[in-house]
């Protein structure tokens, strides 16, 4: 974790920002709960445990800054809530998600599935792709299993 915090600190410094204690507390929560796709309010409650003096507005500003610097990705799974996801170290693109419409679970696909699609878009439309996001909405294995069991 310390290695990633040092890397984020360097990214901030390169853009003339500091890793303040409040920003560091926010980054630590994101690192500790990396698989959870937390909302700003959830992050705030967890950060408040580490830094009781922090305000919700500070957490929002920190998340927006980290998003602008492409340290975190702001995502929405269609439920009207913005969630924040740390960009994987060394990743060129945002990773993909599988969202279950039954239970709301979210799984990540780390593999970049769209390399060929990007080349087609760039060649056929002359559009320079900088990033992409792909979210599949469907029914997860567990919910499919429950549906099969309840219908038998």
TrEMBL record:
InterPro entries, per the entry: FUR, Fur_C, WH-like_DNA-bd_sf, WH_DNA-bd_sf
An example molecular function term from Gene Ontology annotations: DNA-binding transcription factor activity
Binding residues for Zn(2+): 100, 103, 140, 143
Needed co-factor(s): Zn(2+); Mn(2+); Fe(2+)
Residues where Fe cation binds: 132
Keywords associated with the record: DNA-binding, Iron, Metal-binding, Repressor, Transcription, Transcription regulation, Zinc
One GO BP: negative regulation of DNA-templated transcription
Note describing how the cofactor binds: Binds 1 zinc ion per subunit. Binds 1 Mn(2+) or Fe(2+) ion per subunit.
Superkingdom classification of source: Bacteria
Keyword Secreted applies: no
Family classification: Belongs to the Fur family.
Protein name per UniProt: Transcriptional repressor
